[in-house]
Amino acid sequence: MPIYEYKCPKCEHKFELMRPFSRSHEGAECPHCHEVSPRVVSVFAAVSLGEGGVSSPVGGGSPCSGCSSTNCGPCSAG
Which of 16, 43, 53, 71 has its CA 20 to 30 A from that of 6? Predict the structure, then answer.
């Protein structure tokens, strides 16, 4: 069964829920305030072994929007 992510429009709590694909289009009750919450697009990370066997992010592996750095030191996001 897939895991879907939701974000509550009332309290902004993000949560995950495992449910069948047949219910993927349905909202889910927030575990904090019980508001029906819509499903959000899940973000995932992909890494690749680069030169010398060092792993590096591939397309969007950075937590910063639009950042292409492989090190979060300059912006302290990681």
Answer: 71
